[in-house]
């Protein structure tokens, strides 16, 4: 933070730290937390001029934006909330931010519900889904299928390195869904028992590529080879507007300690010293559209190649710089 940056509300600092450490994680949950933090910053601001208030909100937006690069739900949330900052006085600006933050949060919940109902229509009574990582959008499809009275079972991939498959397993068990937990390496073997691969997304590019937890692309290739349809549950908040103008999505590289402990590293290196060993820990990968059967959003399901039409409709009129930039 530079000398001139305004002081940030503790909710913003806390949310930023929790997003970076993945205490708060999952694209939709991150977006919700960012909106909440901006609302707290606005509500408690003691800025004495509209300029000071705007500067404070932009600084809060920048702090939240710099936490993780890949899930577009985060900048999409910041844009939505900060574009609500309209008016002449501090109190009008404050009201604009707080109202748009809460509206954003309501729409997020609604979108996930609607998406779930659409995704549930793809699941038949007795189907088995194979999941990767933990996605609230994907789980919403299972939840709505259960609400429709269908029996659904799940094969849950552990999802190294952070084992977020355990969160999925816990949620599914809470709903009394039978769960078979497998390590990632076992996925191909168990695809023969699956009727769908069901995953979420952190970002969807204009060409229909799906950016999701590392391992999704390998799973999709194997599923295609096995003839198992791949369904991506992603509300429109996951559509990446910058990819319409040729930008690519940055893939987050996380700390090597998520993969290898210091003791494990010492064992590998033995007497040789640490020079020759490199650990890479990409958090996400890109699944090309040809391996995806359907992208399920709250606006309906789309073949990946046609998602750009929806993106033009949603983002077509968005021009200019980012609202958190000076
Ligand atoms: P929902 C997660 O990323 C997973 O990749 C998951 O598929 C995606 O976010 C979407 O999650 P991370 O934050 O928005 O765990 O569907 O790295 O909950």
Can you tell me about this structure?
The chain has 11 helices and 10 strands. It is an alpha/beta fold and 326 residues long. The protein has 2 domains: 10-114, translation initiation factor eif-2b, domain 1 (Four Helix Bundle (Hemerythrin (Met), subunit A)); 121-250 and 281-315, Translation initiation factor eif-2b, domain 2 (Rossmann fold), CATH 3.40.50. The strands form 2 sheets. Strands 3-2-1-4-7-9-10 form a 7-stranded mixed sheet, sandwiched between helices. Strands 5-6-8 form a 3-stranded antiparallel sheet, with helices on one face. Strand 1, helix 6 (136-147) and strand 2 form a beta-alpha-beta unit. Helix 1 (10-21) packs antiparallel against helix 2 (27-44), helix 2 runs parallel beside helix 4 and helix 2 packs antiparallel against helix 5 (90-122). The radius of gyration is 21 Å and the shape is globular. The mean pLDDT is 96. It binds 1,5-di-O-phosphono-alpha-D-ribofuranose. Residues 25-29, 133, 135-138, 164, 199-202, 212-213, 283 line the site of 1,5-di-O-phosphono-alpha-D-ribofuranose.
Structure at a glance:
By secondary structure, this protein is an alpha/beta fold. 44% of the residues lie in helices and 12% in strands. The two termini are 14 Å apart.
Topology:
Elements: H1 10-21, H2 27-44, H3 50-65, H4 73-82, H5 90-122, E1 127-131, H6 136-147, E2 152-157, H7 165-174, E3 179-182, H8 187-191, E4 196-199, E5 203-204, E6 210-213, H9 216-226, E7 230-233, H10 262-269, E8 284-287, E9 294-297, E10 300-302, H11 307-315
Parallel strand pairs: 1-2, 1-4, 2-3, 4-7, 7-9
Antiparallel strand pairs: 5-6, 6-8, 9-10
Helix pairs in contact: 1-2, 1-3, 2-3, 2-4, 2-5, 3-4, 4-5, 5-6
The chain binds 1,5-di-O-phosphono-alpha-D-ribofuranose.
